[in-house]
Automatic annotation (TrEMBL):
Protein's recorded name: Coproporphyrin III ferrochelatase
Any Gene Ontology CC annotation: cytoplasm
Top enzyme category: lyase
Native source species: Arthrobacter psychrochitiniphilus
Pathway as given in its UniProt record: Porphyrin-containing compound metabolism; protoheme biosynthesis
Signal peptide: none
Classification via InterPro entries: Ferrochelatase, Ferrochelatase_C, Ferrochelatase_N
Amino acid sequence: MSVAPKTENAVMAPAEYDAVLLASFGGPEGQDDVIPFLRNVTRGRGIPDERLEEVSHHYRANGGISPINAQNRALKAALEAELAARNISLPVLWGNRNWDPYIPAVLQDAYDSGHRRILMLTTSVYSSYSSCRQYREDIGMALTETGLDGKLAVDKVRQYFDHPGFVEPFIEGTAASLATVKAALAAAGKDPQSVHVMFATHSIPTRDAQASGRSELQTMIFEQDSAYVAQHLANAEAIMARVDPAQEFSLVYQSRSGAPHVPWLEPDINDALADIAAAGTQGVVVVPLGFISDHMEVLWDLDTEAKETCAELGLAFDRAPTPSTHQKFVEGLVDLICERTVQNNIADRPAMTKLGPWYDVCNPGCCANFRGEKPAIAEVGSTVGLPAAAQGGS
């Protein structure tokens, strides 16, 4: 695997920011919220409510509540505490793409409160349309819709998939889960070495996977022809190199949605579990490598469905924790903020794989939107959100 040399957009000059925006996906907070939330997620696709109700079961089973909002509140509080501990005076705002608090309203409130330059930190760490570009487009559209384009500047931190703050908690958690499964097998009189580690992430359409990391200005060669896949594989390799270099592991996918005829990344975790059981493996450690916290996809697709599959197959099972509010993760996020700020600047940009550190600003067309490109911040040549003077206006 090789990567083309980084261009001038790799590192942007530090700037004076007056707030941080924690941007996330959002989720329902009661049974009455489920269908309106799913309408937001699928807007523009013409999916009827009857079909949305069919796919709402994992939210319904949890009282109509997604854990993501509570997790983001906890992460926001942890970020505020870490910033205060470092004497960094940056308020942390919180906005969602698909549920209250909505990003456009948060930006409007920020502007009305006197903020003029905001640094966005997203809760999606890998490169793909849904985990990077869509956030950048949502900010671009929000600035346009609110009339704040040219008045409020919003920048974005780099994708931080291989930042030590994200990866180190997984190393710690994977090692602990591996020890748990081995002990369970030994206690059951089975071979404690008959364990497989599965790194699980959200499946995405194959076309989106192949477009991830691609741009009009830059050609890269990625493992399996996808930055999204390559980044996960590189992280998995880095984790296992620290935990146990001889341990067998693989990358699997979960949470597929969409039309059956559209190809998505495979293998599905449940199919992969059946395969390793048939091959004689007796235990599995599942590592939710694609998630920063225990989203519904983790609680349902892994802790419920995959765990039930393991029970049916007779596999010992343990699921490693997500970074959540792990102190190393929180410190890493604040380090990412400091990479971009004038005050408290951190010039060193650590990365635990050869793919990083990733870019501050993407080249045009990176992680293409196949439904039609929209104005996006943090892109070379984009003037969205820049002050009018910087756009060439008066």
